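Renewal narrative, Specific Aim 1. Our central claim is that a sequence can be written position by position from structural information alone. The example that follows is taken directly from our test logs and has not been curated for this report. It begins with the structure tokens describing the chain, in the order in which they were read.
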């Protein structure tokens, strides 16, 4: 049952104070965390065994909503990474490269089904370790994880159709390094196509969010995946660097920051390793005057505020046609006042916890820079934040100039930069005026305008009258400083194959 609040405050678990007539009050609906068992200590998963790290060091994985330690996780150093790569190479030579595509596909189908069966458990674990709302992990992340394994399971015995008329072969060991914002989804984007093509894997999850990937081991083992086909080494940048430098690794797939992407590109240059980089973004929404404005506002809100703005293709810039700018801004502010910030396990929560204290500090610093540079700042002050944990109110800056920091630098938080345009040409020029090029959103009722504008945007993905829609059959990737190579779809197979015409 829902009702419109007149006077009362919101129940615990929601972060919005009552504002007469504005906020719909829901009773808290907390997802139980009893479904998931988190071992107090995690070792490295190498060659089908849990091994202690050679140097015996462990780091904490923290729940950003409570700041409690969830588990101690092994820190892999170069000798551990070497053992993992060698285990992957042995599994490649002895087992995985000898299987038919059909047999590889059967393992992947099994993994996909097991992920579906354990979806709730994985969603809760992902929410605990990452801080994103359970609604997101339950309805978006985990279903997409299963969908990716299903999709690439289907390709495993049909690779000849992906490269018609060409000879092809797997590469060998793939080193895969992933970030903290979509821990399981990024693992799926990387592991599923690699295995479908016949490669074996050493995965390095982000140091902030390793737990869900480590939980996948139970699923791999239940699916009977041969030992060494997937190995998981945990640790921070030095662990990733040891993986990229290893001479037996034939391919590196990286998702993360542009700065680290550049370091990795330099480190593999001249080594013959294949490389795909999925990096940062400063993606723009373009709202034209003829758009369905309420729908557009909802798309903008979900594209930057849901998921705390922790999305590489977040729509962090809004370009709105001048004649409707005031109306759009009013609607946007009204909608922001209704957002619920708080306990990520509450099914009503829109905005969960910022993933780490370091990230929260970085976002706050950029907000201060935005205020200094003179954009007009708005945050919904009716939203109260929980007393503990890494929480932040969503905010926007209007009247920002193209040269302002908030228009140029990736914030990776719930911060929106708003400016206006008068003509489609100006909108396109402003949208493309960025070193990045990951995604864009066009909002217009006119199909011809949508197509004409989309063709001129330098972005790997352009959504029209929607945002953040993903499908495993659709390739994803960027231009410029957003990286190169594509993941997803048929395109996502090619970086994992040696193709001879
Ligand atoms: P973010 O800013 O999203 O945290 P990073 O690029 O710092 O992204 O991290 C993404 C992944 O890259 C993480 O798994 C991290 O441990 C890893 N990483 C960081 N530095 C390096 C490096 N020099 N070489 C390889 N991997 C690295």
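The sequence written for that structure reads:
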């Amino acid at each position: 049952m829902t009702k419109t609040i007149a006077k009362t405050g919101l129940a615990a678990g929601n972060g919005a104070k009552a504002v007469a007539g504005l906020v719909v009050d829901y009773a808290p609906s907390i997802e139980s965390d009893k479904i998931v068992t988190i071992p107090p200590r995690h070792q490295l998963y190498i060659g089908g065994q849990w091994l202690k790290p050679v140097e015996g060091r462990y780091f904490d994985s923290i729940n950003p909503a409570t700041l409690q330690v969830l588990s101690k996780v092994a820190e892999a150093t170069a000798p551990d990474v070497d053992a993992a790569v060698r285990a992957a190479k042995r599994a490649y030579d002895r087992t995985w490269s000898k299987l038919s595509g059909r047999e590889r596909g059967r393992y992947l189908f099994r993994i996909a089904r097991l992920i579906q069966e354990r979806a709730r458990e994985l969603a809760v674990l992902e929410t605990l370790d990452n801080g994103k709302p359970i609604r997101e992990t339950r309805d978006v992340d985990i279903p997409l994880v299963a969908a990716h394994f299903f999709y690439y399971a289907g390709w495993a015995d049909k690779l000849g159709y992906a490269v018609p008329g060409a000879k092809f072969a797997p590469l060998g060991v793939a080193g895969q390094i992933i970030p903290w914002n979509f821990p399981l989804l990024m693992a799926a984007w990387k592991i599923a196509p690699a295995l479908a093509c016949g490669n074996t894997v050493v995965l390095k999850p982000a140091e902030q969010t390793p737990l869900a990937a480590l939980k996948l081991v139970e699923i791999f083992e239940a699916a009977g995946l041969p030992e060494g086909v997937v190995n998981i080494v945990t640790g921070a940048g030095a662990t990733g660097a040891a993986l990229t430098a290893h001479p037996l690794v034939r391919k590196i797939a990286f998702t993360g920051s542009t700065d680290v992407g550049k370091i990795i590109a330099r480190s593999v240059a001249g080594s013959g390793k294949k490389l795909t980089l999925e990096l940062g973004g400063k993606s723009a929404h373009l709202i034209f005057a003829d758009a369905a404005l309420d729908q557009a506002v909802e798309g903008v809100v979900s594209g930057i505020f849901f998921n705390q703005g922790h999305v590489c293709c977040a729509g962090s810039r809004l370009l709105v046609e001048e004649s409707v700018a005031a109306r759009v801004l009013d609607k946007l502010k009204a909608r922001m006042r209704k957002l619920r910030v708080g306990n990520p396990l509450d099914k009503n929560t829109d905005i969960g916890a910022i993933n780490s204290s370091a990230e929260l500090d970085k976002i706050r610093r950029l907000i201060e820079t935005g205020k200094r540079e003179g954009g007009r700042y708005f945050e919904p002050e009716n939203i109260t934040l929980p007393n503990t944990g890494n929480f932040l109110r969503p905010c926007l800056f209007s009247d920002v100039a193209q040269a302002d920091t908030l228009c140029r630098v990736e914030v990776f938080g719930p911060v929106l930069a708003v400016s206006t345009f008068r003509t489609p040409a100006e909108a396109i020029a402003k949208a493309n005026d960025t070193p990045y090029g990951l995604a864009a959103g066009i909002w217009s009722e006119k199909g011809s305008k949508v197509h004409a504008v989309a063709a001129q945007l330098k972005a790997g993905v352009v959504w029209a009258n929607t945002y953040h829609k993903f499908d495993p059959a659709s390739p994803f990737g960027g231009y410029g400083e957003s990286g190169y190579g594509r993941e997803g779809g048929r395109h996502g197979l090619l970086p994992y194959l040696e193709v001879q015409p």
